[in-house]
Write a structure and sequence with these properties.
With 186 residues, the protein is of the alpha+beta class. It has one domain (4-185): Jelly Rolls (Sandwich). The chain has four helices and eleven strands, in the order E-E-E-E-E-E-E-E-E-E-H-H-E-H-H. It has helices at residues 108-119, 131-141, 152-169, 179-185; strands spanning 10-14, 17-22, 25-30, 40-45, 50-57, 60-64, 67-71, 78-80, 86-90, 96-103, 144-145. The protein has a six-stranded antiparallel β-sheet with strand order 1-2-3-10-5-8, covered by helices on one side. The chain has a five-stranded antiparallel β-sheet with strand order 7-6-9-4-11. The chain crosses the membrane at residues 113-138, 158-176. Keywords: Membrane, Transmembrane, Transmembrane helix. It comes from Gymnopus androsaceus JB14.
Length: 186
Amino acid sequence: MTDSADFSDSATIGKGITMFFEDDLKRLVSREGADDEHFFVAPHWHEEHDEIMSILEGKLKITVGSEVRICTPETGDCFIPRRVPHSLEAFKFVPVVFTERTNPSRLSKNKELFFRNLFVTPGALTGSLGFLQTMLVFYHGDLYPTFPIHLAWLEKAFVTFIGGYVAPLLGHRVAYKSLEDVKKLR
């Protein structure tokens, strides 16, 4: 497995799960040990960017629309088009290392900012971050949860109303407005 000491910039997002920021890539390492949190990203979609996942070690289940893909280093990149609901899930007890990049690549810094705001508070992966704070980060980060009946306009309106209006009205703020804010704190 890749050692976190190999990278200078990382965020722990759960027990046994670490994200590393490497230029335009986000590298995620999930040990998937017996005492580790299980890596799962619920169905969601993005309006402004595509995602490209590359599995470096292990395997990852990626659901794109209604198609379930089991991705490994041998299967090559997994392209996830914008506006298509998708989810990610590791396999229990199978360590996985993968990278994520965005298309267009100019949005990769926005994606890094999204992850930094999401993971600045422990509990983001387990859902204990708090509903309003999560919706605020989603609003600023081009992420929309997929409802059981996928209606993109309703999902976008939901995030816009809760994350763009209600959360700020109740005092919630993103931790970082830009990557310059992140650098100031290092």
